[in-house]
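Possible regression after last week's pipeline update?

I re-ran a chain I had predicted before the update to compare outputs. Posting the input and the new output here so someone can diff against the archived version. Not blocking, just want to make sure nothing changed silently.
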Amino acid sequence: MIFPDEYKNVGVTSIHPNDAKGNKVYFLSDYIISEPKLDDGTIGYSLYQVTKSGNGLLQTAESIETIASGKQIIKYKKELNIKNRSLLIETASQLCKGDVNTVIFTGVDKHVTFVHAPDLSSIIEIEIVDVVPPEPSWLTHVVRRLETSGIFGDFGVLFSENVIDLKQFEGEDTVFPCTASGLKGKYLDSDIITKNGSLVVGCEISRTLIESRFPELEYTLVNICPFKSDIFKPTKPFITRCCRSEKSGLVTINDVEGVVVHWGASEFEVAEAIRDLVLHVKEQG
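New output (post-update):
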């Protein structure tokens, strides 16, 4: 796949680069899209990679290699956010059929870029791991709003959701960490737990609390801590939450790398954590 990191490295001209005066090319133009008007009035697209030499704004084109031309290229009609790499790769992948292997995109700011031989495997899928209720899942809500804002556009990522519904554990003898969940059962923050055989749905903090408050109580723990969870084992890069701030950062769980944010992390902290994870995954890969 060829997908320029920056659209500033893509030049557009109505002539062949070899026909440029003095064979000069703008210093940022690593790729040239030629779009001359043909005799029948249509546009004939060609895409070239340029090797340059010299200094200054205009440099000498030492070699020009054809990447695609003619029926191999189509231009997408709608203007898109061309900083959203995942969107462009997915769109190009859908359009590259038969002879077509290259799609030219125009941004809402009228700048141009392209994707040649799109490769969906280059997109990093990140799993959002969280629990409900309360609903919506807080972490999913934050990540999706950030995604809509375009903040992850340059990362080349997609998000999937692994949201664990704690309603499956509801019951008279089930103990949940706090009343905010609205789950049917008892709560460590408000109830007196006296019945042996209770099912505690929580984490190591919940274990510590119940054993501190009710040292004689016999109970079973369903651990929902991401580090010791009984109900979640990651299989792909992930982001999740933990109530212990010292656990935040890049982690490895079940031999899978991911990132943990504090239970009350801000949108900025979530975005920064995802950025750290993406850079780490790309560095490793």
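Follow-up from reviewer: compared with the archived run. The mean pLDDT is 91. Marking as no regression found.
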